[in-house]
Amino acid sequence: MATLNAVVRDDSKKSIAKTLRKEGKIPSVVYGQTVGNESITVNAGEVDKLFHNEGRNAIITLNIDNKKKYTVMAHELQFNNLKGTIQHIDFLEINVNEELDAVVPVVLQGTEKVEELRAVVNHQLSELTVRALPKDLPSSIEIDVSELAVGESIRISDIKTENGYTILGDPEEVIVSVSYGGKNEEAEETEEPPAAEGAQTPEQPGE
Predict the structure, then answer these.
(1) Which residues neighbour 92 within 8 Å (Cβ) at sequence distance 6 or greater?
(2) What is the per-residue burial (b if ≥16 Cβ within 10 Å, else e) of 85-103?
(3) What is the pLDDT of residues 78-105, one digit of tens each?
(4) How many CB atoms lie within 10 A of CB 15?
(5) pLDDT per residue over 133-184, tens digit each?
(6) pTM (two decimals)
């Protein structure tokens, strides 16, 4: 279990969050049954390292001011749309013996083989919600699309789950599909132009 250090945050000043981010810190909050709701600050570098090594749904021992420790997960992340950096984290206190719902990213494999055939891979669901014990939550769900042909798709019901987690949502919802990516060059049939309105037909003999 990874450990993340935190300090109690004084959020009485509205400008404090902006100042903290400039210092390489992330304003956050931790909440749960025993912790209540507490404003904290964590180090951005330590968070990036933790997520890189342990995954987005890592079980974390949150060490606050070396006085209090809670078992948590990063329940919700807010990002800076321009920079892609984490702006805020909601840490949720968890019970390791109780199931919970978490968002898991979908990672596609084999897309290059499909694209070699001038087809387009349509990644329609980039995340899935799963339910499991904290220890069984996957860091990602990998889907191999290399054998998909144009017109084929993979739905939630097609995913074989492992390690005791369940994927939530409509079983028929499409996660990824493949469509034709080239120009549809069909030969056009040549047709005689229609006769103009009012045009006279040649007179027949005897008329």
Answers:
(1) 30, 31, 32, 72, 73, 74, 75, 100
(2) ebbebebbbbeeeebbebe
(3) 999 888 899 999 999 999 999 999 999 9
(4) 7
(5) 999 998 899 999 999 999 999 999 999 887 789 999 999 999 999 999 754 4
(6) 0.73
| Long-range Cβ pairs for the range 153-159 (8 Å, 24+) | 153/177, 153/178, 156/125, 156/128
Single-letter residue type at 95: N
Closest Cα to residue 126, out of 138, 112, 108? 108
Query: Judging by beta carbons within 10 Å of its beta carbon (0-12, 13-18, 19+), is residue 125 exposed, middle or buried?
Result: middle
Half-sphere exposure for 63 (CA within 13 Å, toward CB): 8
Single out the residue of 51, 57, 53, 89 nearest to residue 73, CA to CA. Answer: 57
71 secondary structure, DSSP code: E
- Nearest C-alpha neighbor of 59 from the set 105, 25, 97, 9: 97
13 alpha-carbon distance from chain centroid = 33
Strand 25-32 and strand 2-8: the pairing is: unpaired
15/3 Cα distance (integer angstroms): 28
